[in-house]
Specification:
There is one protein chain. This protein is mainly beta. The chain has two helices and 17 strands. The chain folds into two domains: 34-167, Immunoglobulin-like (Sandwich), CATH 2.60.40; 170-307, Immunoglobulin-like, CATH 2.60.40. Helix content is 10%, strand content 42%. The strands form three sheets. It has a seven-stranded mixed beta sheet with strand order 3-2-5-7-8-1-4, with no helix packed on it. Strands 6, 10, 11, 13 and 14 form a five-stranded antiparallel beta sheet that branches. Belongs to the bacteroidetes fimbrillin superfamily. FimB/Mfa2 family. Its main location: membrane.
């Protein structure tokens, strides 16, 4: 009689243990935090003006992500500022129109800040916490850098988010007309352009930019494009351009170049995701070689004269 009682007692206990084990094993891990990256600035906001002038082409809106942003770096900070995830700079290796960032399943629920940089050639421009970048450093200078950042409240039912990448720089586009045939080289100096940007699109620290262009292979259409951060204010940057005849330097090399033609310096305004279009027209009506430049700025589909032969 007592044996039967023992059997009846043990059986329910075994069933209970088996049932509880099945429940524990069937619970899936919490869904990870996922962020889908898109591209907001696929074209400059005033691209149509440059297209009308035949100076640039508009990109289609449905191209693969990597046709706009070819590399990605991201870093994730928790609410205390600790780095909890990071991907070093890497090529986008697929033709998808969006890119998915999936964070580790081990992350507990909480608030996390994701910062993403695009089109950098290396991690060198990034600051210590990678939320600030130096735009004229190696790996970012001359590159069309994109940025996106947001803080996400990671909790059950709120695991999937989207984030749009935006351009950090503008484009200085200069076209030259009427330049004498002996001119085959030019330099461009821009003073007072922002150099740093943080993940909140706050710009800081002014710098100067110098570029050079050899015309030997582009004589049919003399134009230049230079990517740079915004100006600190309206007309807050100064542009100096020099047109040079390299043959005048003789055997002394580039160090001996001197400006054959030197237009007047002008003040310009660079903006984020904006093309600043300028036209330099050399006018030498008498053919004396003592002409001057008319300098035009493209404003609202019209050329606005900034400097002419009769203006100081």
């Amino acid at each position: 009689m007592s044996k039967g009682i023992k059997i009846l007692y043990v059986l329910p206990v075994a069933v209970c243990l088996l049932w509880s084990s099945c429940i524990r094993d069937s619970i899936p891990p919490c869904p990870p935090l996922q962020v889908t990256l898109t591209v907001k600035d696929k074209n400059y906001f005033n691209i149509d003006d440059a297209v009308k002038l035949g100076l640039m082409e508009r990109k289609a809106e449905n191209l693969p992500f990597r046709d706009y942003v070819s590399t990605l770096y991201y870093i994730v900070h928790d609410a205390e500022g600790k780095v909890v995830a990071e991907q070093k700079n890497a090529l986008v290796d697929n033709d998808n129109q969006t890119q998915l960032i999936t964070l580790p399943e081990s992350l507990p629920y909480g608030k996390y800040t994701l910062t993403v940089w695009g089109n950098m050639k290396s991690d060198e421009p990034l600051g210590e916490d990678a939320t600030t970048a130096e735009m004229e450093a190696v790996g970012a200078a001359a590159n069309d850098i994109y940025l996106a950042s947001a803080t996400f409240d990671y909790r059950y039912g709120n695991e999937e988010h989207s984030l749009a990448m935006e351009r950090t720089k503008g484009n200085l586009l200069i076209k030259a007309e009427g330049i004498p045939d002996n001119i085959d080289f030019s330099t461009k100096d821009i003073q007072d352009i922002y150099n740093f940007v943080d993940n909140g699109f706050q710009y800081s620290t002014l710098t100067d930019i110098h570029t050079e262009l050899d015309w030997q292979e582009i004589r049919s259409e003399i134009k230049s494009e230079t990517l740079m951060c915004p100006s600190p204010s309206y007309e807050g940057s100064t542009l100096s351009v020099m047109f040079i005849d390299k043959s005048a330097a003789g055997s002394q090399g580039r160090a001996a170049y001197y400006p054959t033609l030197e237009p007047q310096d002008i003040n310009i305004t660079m903006g984020r995701n904006e093309i600043t279009i300028l036209k330099y027209v050399y006018v030498d009506e008498g053919g004396s070689g003592e002409g001057d430049f008319e300098i035009y700025l493209r404003v609202n589909d019209n050329w606005e004269l900034l400097h002419g032969m009769e203006l100081d």
